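>> received
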Amino acid sequence: MASITRTRALTALTAGGLLLLPLAACSGGTGGSVPDLAASSDFVSSDAARSMEDSAPGGSAETPGAEKSIIQTGDIRLSVKDPTAAADEAARVAAKFGGSVESMSVSGTGDRSTANLTLRVPADELDAAFAALGEIGTVESENRSAVDVTAEHADLDARVGALETSVERLQGLMANAASTTELLEAESMLSQRQQELDGLKAQLQALEGQVAESTITVSLTSPSTLPGGGPANFWEGLLAGFSSLGAAGSGALVLLGVLLPWLVVGGIIALVVVLIVRRARRRGRARRAAQASPEQAAPGRAAPRQAEPGQPASGSSSDA
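>> returned
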């Protein structure tokens, strides 16, 4: 009975010693510096935190049924009688659907003007806005596009969350810093993390703004009096004629610049050919002259004597 009691006592003492060892190790490690804590799991980088959240259930990874982030844009070209007045009407259409005019440019006056606008409307009102803009004039062209940025949005959201957690922990560490060195190190790390967090928040905010509001580019022009399009009146036709003259002159200069090197090369080749032909002709004449000289100096044939002034030629008297 006594041996059983001693055995139980030894077992209890051994268990108590094993429990005290981890506590002693923890108490000895509380005086670590900030870099040691930063290297621990409490101060993981944003990329590591992002991968942890993506792999965890309900993390930032795209899950089936999650709301998609779509950036929608479009452009529409309208033919209107008065582009200036139509531009004001297009601005009112944007305001009607809770949007705004991002930019507007108008050139010319009256029916000879053109206008270009960039409108921002809520994404869920894009179809209605296009329908309302189509009623302003005659639709000549219309294009729409959509870009899925769900993965990019989820990635930025996860990185922002991880950095916010890291910033909160660093702020808590600064509040409990035991020395000036720890405080300075924590402050330096906090400044770096805060800078990264502000940049990511700005990117996330810009992306969410593009998703929430769609961009519509509107081009307004007056109709042309010609069937195939062109100037709308006499003065525009006259200006177009002068412009065509200038374009023709510019085109001629460009053509001359392209042909000039070839003309120089062709001239050099032609000059070489002419020199070769002339030299060949001279050699031919010299050769014929050399062949004719021995025939004239052959024996038995006297060269004709030149008649002196006042005397008839030798051959003419005998013939007479």
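>> The beta strands are 70-79, 100-107, 114-122, 138-148, 213-221.
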